Amino acid sequence: RGKLLSPERRRRAVVVLHDRFRVSQRRACRLTGQHRNTQRRPVPPADIEEQKLKRRLVYRRLRLDGWSVNHKRVHRIWREEGLQRPLPRKRKRSRPAGGSKELLRSEYPHHVWAIDFQFDQTMNGRTLKFLNVIDEFSRVCLAIRVGRRCKAVDVIDTIEELLKLYPPPTHLRMDNGPEFIAHALQEWCTGSGTGTAYIPPGSPWENPFVESFNGRFRDEFLNIELLASLQEAKLLAEQHRIEYNVCRSHSARQGRTPLEVLQQWKAA
Q1: Right CATH number for 112-267 from 1.10.1200.10, 3.30.420.10, 3.90.76.10, 3.40.1180.10?
Q2: Rounded CA separation 179/2 (Å)
Q3: Strand pairing of 112-121 and 127-135?
Q4: Model's pTM, two decimal places?
Q5: C or N terminus of the chain, fewer CB within 10 Å?
Q6: Would you kindly state where each structural domain of the chain is located, as residue ranges?
Q7: Distances (CA, A) of 213 to 117, 134, 232
C-alpha cells in the first residue's frame, strides 16, 4: 500500500525483493517503479558531517550543542531516514472556569504535580493502567506506575513513594475520576497539607502538561511497543520515563530538557 516516493526507498525495496523473494532485479525495479540505471548507479558516500547529523536529528538540541545547522537540512535528513514528523495539533486556549478567575500556575519545582491515567493492554488482551505524575514547572515525569488496576490507595502509595525523593507538592492537579475524588485521597491531602486543584468536568485542556505528556507517551511508546507482560511494561515504561527526562527538549522551556530546567533552577 502507498507509494515509495524517494529513489533511495525504492532502492531498498528492490534489494529486499531480490534478497528475500529471489526476484530478478528487472522485475523488482518494475514492481517498485525504480529505473534500472538509478538502481545500478552507486550510492554517493555521505560525508562525515551528514552521518553525525543523522545521529542527532533534533534541531533545537543541535543548536544548543553548538551546531550551526539550518532546520531545513535537518528536516531533509529526517525524511531520508524515513522518520515520521509529528502531526500538527490544534491548541485550545485554557479559559478560567469563573470568567476572570485566574487558574493555578506552577511557579517553582514541585509547586504543582499533575496526575492522570492512561490505558493500554498486553498481548493477551489484559488491561494495563498507567498512572502518570508530572511536575508542571520543570516538566519532569516523576513516576509512571503500571498495574492491572489502580485505586485511590494505589495513588496514595505512589505519591508517598515520590515524597521519599522529592519535597511535597503544594497542589495536585487532577480530573474528577473516581480514584481522585475518593475520600481516601482527599483525607490524605488534608492530613499532609497538600491542596487539590480539580479541573472542571470535560475540560482536559485545563490539565495541559500531563495531557501533553500523555499524547507523546501514546505516540512514542504505547503505539509502538508490544507489551508481553506486566513486568515488561513496568521495565520499558521506566526506561521511557528516564529518556524523556534526560533527552526530551521542550519548546516552552527554550529547548531544554526537563532535567536541565530543574538543574538550572537549583543553580540559580
Answers
A1: 3.30.420.10
A2: 44
A3: antiparallel
A4: 0.66
A5: N
A6: 1-44, 48-85, 112-267
A7: 11, 8, 21
